[in-house]
Amino acid sequence: MKLKDIIQAVAVNETAGSTEKEIAGIHMDSRCIEKDFLFVAVKGTQTDGHDYIDKAIEKGATAVVCEVFPTNIVPEVTYIKVNSTEDSVGKLATAFYGNPTSKLDLIGVTGTNGKTTIATLLYNMFRSFGYKAGLISTVCNYIDGEAIPTEHTTPDPITLNSLLGRMADEGCKYVFMEVSSHSVAQKRIGGLTFAGGIFTNLTRDHLDYHKTFENYLKAKKTFFDNLPKNAFALTNADDKNGLVMVQNTKAKVSTYSLRTLCDFKGKVLEDGFEGMLMDINNREVNVQFIGRFNALNLLAVYGAACLLGKQPEEVLIALSTLRPVSGRFDALRSPKGYTAIVDYAHTPDALTNVLNAIHEVLNGRGQVITVVGAGGNRDKGKRPIMAQEAVKQSDKVVITSDNPRFEEPQDIINDMLAGLSKEDMRKVVSIVDRKEAIRTACMLAQNSDVILVAGKGHENYQEIKGVKHHFDDKEVLKDIFESEN
């Protein structure tokens, strides 16, 4: 594509060099630059792309988009100056990849908890309807049935547009995408056109990045503020921020709820560890999910499918066949008669939701033993709260290591223990080694008890000092169950 056609997507302040040249690719990482590429010099949280302009040119960049022209101008290279490269990179990528969201319906799911479940279930549902569909999620990206490994909840704008471009080329009609607060704040979704947006809930998370809850809320709300008029905005009326999210949107607003008047109303009629019987808009449906938080997730899926034009009966039949997402309330039965549940819950609210769901089903017929940790180099403020929530709703708690990253595991555990009273400590043990912590919980469990192993869910690694070591909570549990036989 010609450079002049790509840069039409942004407001250009100044140009040095020809814009008639052909561009073979675009990137914001100098290490990924190849011959005849356009390099976008973005100021990131860790590094400034302007420091790598020379490196990008050495690798073959023939055009550079920047905020400040470098002192050493290379005559063969075209330089384009803009106000904000962070704001421009998504729009440039969208232009280069042929505006893929004009050829498909992109649905964004945002909120603290539930994004992966809702996006994945919608993807599975629409494929079951016979459509080609794409998924962009924390667990894995999919182009119809083809798995594409993922690094972030929402990829960088170049990777994202490349992925969406491939989805459009493969004939995907719908794409369901998790939209993280980071991606909104860092303009990673700039240039994309959404056909709909779904809000799940808002609780404390990512304050290491956003600094305040208000900034975190604002990032989520910005997504809805920018939805086009012909899109839908589906929001959780049971969350106190649900209506705040959509108060300035131009999109058509719809609501879902278990408690209040809304467009998509649900009620849990019966529940067990095998699933629930729900009433959705006065129709009964059996689902293979557990807990009120999942009932809300299913209402969001139901509502979005109806808003995308599917018939309610058709959607209910599909809901009854859907299975939980890997690492989300994943239940395993021990030979000793207790149940172990692996869940990704890594925020206080998510932990509370999962424990509430366990208690709803258990109904006092057994004890709850929780294995929980907290991630390193992330929001330290939630650590004592995580421990408090675990203790409040468990009979025994094993506090352990999660992904310590570059912190000492014992320091993280100490931060968690700092939130507990002497009385709390009577039901708590701390074991740094996560495998031993899970083994200890299994040794403590009796027939009819439930063990919750929280925090890592689908992850099959433990990140220690920058190295990812293989570790899978489900594998550990299965090995322990083998030895119990």
From TrEMBL:
This is UDP-N-acetylmuramoyl-L-alanyl-D-glutamate--2,6-diaminopimelate ligase. Belongs to the MurCDEF family. MurE subfamily. It catalyses: UDP-N-acetyl-alpha-D-muramoyl-L-alanyl-D-glutamate + meso-2,6-diaminopimelate + ATP = UDP-N-acetyl-alpha-D-muramoyl-L-alanyl-gamma-D-glutamyl-meso-2,6-diaminopimelate + ADP + phosphate + H(+). The keyword Cell cycle applies. One of its GO terms (molecular function) is UDP-N-acetylmuramoylalanyl-D-glutamate-2,6-diaminopimelate ligase activity. Residues 109-305 form the Mur ligase central domain. It comes from Phocaeicola acetigenes. The gene is murE. The lineage of its organism: Bacteria, Pseudomonadati, Bacteroidota, Bacteroidia, Bacteroidales. Carboxylation is probably crucial for Mg(2+) binding and, consequently, for the gamma-phosphate positioning of ATP. Keywords: ATP-binding, Cell cycle, Cell division, Cell shape, Cell wall biogenesis/degradation, Cytoplasm, Ligase, Magnesium, Nucleotide-binding, Peptidoglycan synthesis. The modification N6-carboxylysine is found at residue 220. SUPFAM superfamilies: MurD-like peptide ligases, catalytic domain (SSF53623), MurD-like peptide ligases, peptide-binding domain (SSF53244), MurE/MurF N-terminal domain (SSF63418). Residues 22-86 form the Mur ligase N-terminal catalytic domain. InterPro entries: Mur-like_cat_sf, Mur_ligase_C, Mur_ligase_C_dom_sf, Mur_ligase_cen, Mur_ligase_N, MurE/MurF_N, UDP-N-AcMur-Glu-dNH2Pim_ligase. Pathway: Cell wall biogenesis; peptidoglycan biosynthesis.
